[in-house]
Design goal:
globular; mainly alpha; 9 helices
Length: about 190
């Protein structure tokens, strides 16, 4: 894994997919990151922050879907975690701080440990109802899976579960995988 690969993946994560409507400014990850990054850190905020709870929840679900795929083999060591966090922070183009992503990954780790992968896939699917967002979630998860040397069978199995939970057809997953492979291979 090289920094140029990480850079290409992060860049693609911040861009809209090739099948996006003309004029779309960024990926769902990058757009929702702006709201997540403005999330108040204390309860006594009295001024407007730009925080949109729905966009922040969408951001968390997008990151969780990629996290579930990354954890599909049952191993997510410190190197993988650091790489995952770095790619997400880079893709968000400064809208989310490293500490925020680190804390989110800690929460996701606890939830996965407590609930198991099938329940977490179901929770992600419940929080993302728009088909275009669901397609983008698959693309983001597939892109992050590419960072670890391509999409393995166990990663593909989790992507299949997400696709099924979204009630999207096999074509949606094929499109996401093709986008991810194209981004990595040029």
């Amino acid at each position: 894994m090289t920094d140029s690969l990480l850079g290409r993946v992060a860049e693609k994560l911040s861009e809209p997919p090739s099948y996006a409507e003309p004029g779309q400014k960024g990926s769902i990850l990058a757009v929702a990151a702006a709201s997540f990054g403005s999330k108040p850190t204390t309860d006594d905020v009295t001024q407007p922050t730009g925080f949109d709870p729905e966009a922040a929840a969408l951001f968390e679900a997008v990151v969780e879907s990629a996290y579930l795929v990354a954890n599909s083999d049952g191993e997510f060591d410190e190197t993988e975690r650091t790489t995952f966090e770095r790619v997400v922070v880079t893709a968000c183009e400064g809208a989310v701080a490293e500490q925020q992503i680190h804390a989110l990954i800690e929460d996701l780790r606890d939830q996965l440990s407590e609930d198991g992968i099938d329940k977490r896939v179901s929770m992600v699917a419940r929080s993302i109802s728009k088909p275009e967002h669901q397609q983008e979630v698959l693309r983001v998860a597939a892109l992050l899976a590419q960072v670890s040397g391509g999409v393995s069978q166990v990663e593909r199995d989790v992507l299949d579960k997400l696709c099924g939970a979204f009630s999207l057809g096999e074509d949606a997953l094929k499109r996401a995988l093709a986008e991810a492979e194209k981004a990595v291979n040029g």
